[in-house]
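User: Reviewer 2 asked us to show a designed sequence for the structure in our supplementary figure. I'm pasting the structure tokens here. Could you produce the per-position amino acids so we can include them in the response letter?
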């Protein structure tokens, strides 16, 4: 069965002006349509640079063998706007994303830029706001919202323009645990409802448990990749890179080392808790 990859990166490098070493060094990877991919690594590892290359905010170093392809379109100067229409980005600081006087105005902004009629906007905007659970705040000033609410509005603005890919560029790093959980839940719901492909740039290793694929970056290269359960087993490598495995994985490993049989298929805190409850009920 052929895998439908919505993003194909081949032999891509990028060097910032005056830099001695490339920020991205001959990187190759694929992202499957409808999947969730987490990209992790320490500051300066190249995570955010990859995202800016995908949507054409940066131009890759010239190389006849390199290629960036999004939804079947090869990235060039002529196709960059076609690709940006397919990619929505939620950035780290929600305050930097707002341009409207109200939540509804802000969600409508992307539609206005695309020449959507006001009549059509009156249909699209309320649905997008409702999808992220923010209908009661439609007329509120964005500055009056909490961090988590602001990110949900940013997601509504992306949903309104109907992209195929949503990128979370450290989008939850400034939120408290409740706000982070709410935003991730909304993204998961939108992914499932609209068949979106999600790429999450994150420092929070626990968030990667949501992913179908994890890419670990260091010094502009992908040092390992695979399903979360595969990557999390590389404890030594992650520790060397200044990363830790998710807490539930640490608990799972400790239990297994104490002769408690925990299946490798347990890949989330919720699954681990349910399994331990089942074990306890059998005693």
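Assistant: Here is a per-position design you can include in the supplement:
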């Amino acid at each position: 069965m052929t895998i439908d990859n919505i993003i194909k990166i081949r032999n891509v490098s990028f060097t910032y002006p005056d830099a001695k070493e490339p920020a991205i060094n001959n990187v190759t990877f694929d992202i499957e349509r409808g999947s969730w991919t987490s990209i992790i690594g320490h500051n300066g590892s190249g995570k955010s640079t990859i995202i800016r290359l995908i949507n054409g905010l940066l131009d890759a170093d010239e190389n006849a063998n390199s290629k960036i392809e999004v939804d079947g379109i090869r990235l060039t100067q002529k196709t960059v706007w076609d690709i940006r229409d397919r990619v929505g980005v939620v950035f780290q600081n929600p305050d930097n994303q707002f341009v409207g006087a109200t939540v509804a105005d802000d969600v409508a902004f992307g539609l206005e830029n695309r020449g959507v009629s006001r009549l059509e906007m009156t249909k699209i905007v309320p649905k997008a706001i409702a999808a992220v659970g923010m209908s009661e705040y439609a007329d509120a000033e964005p500055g009056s919202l909490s961090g988590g609410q602001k990110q949900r509005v940013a997601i509504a603005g992306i949903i309104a323009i109907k992209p195929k890919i949503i990128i979370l560029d450290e989008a939850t790093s400034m939120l408290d645990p409740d706000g982070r959980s709410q935003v991730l839940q909304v993204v998961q719901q939108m992914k499932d409802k609209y068949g979106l492909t999600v790429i999450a740039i994150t420092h929070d290793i626990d968030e990667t448990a949501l992913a179908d694929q994890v890419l670990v970056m260091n010094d502009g290269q992908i040092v390992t990749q695979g399903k979360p359960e595969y990557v999390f087993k590389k404890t030594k490598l992650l520790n060397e890179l200044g990363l830790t495995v998710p807490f539930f994985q640490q608990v799972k490993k400790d239990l297994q080392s104490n002769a408690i049989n925990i299946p490798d298929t347990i890949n989330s805190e919720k699954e681990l808790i349910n399994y331990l409850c089942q074990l306890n009920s059998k005693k």
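For the response letter, you might also mention the following. The longest strand covers residues 5-14. The first helix runs from residue 47 to 54.
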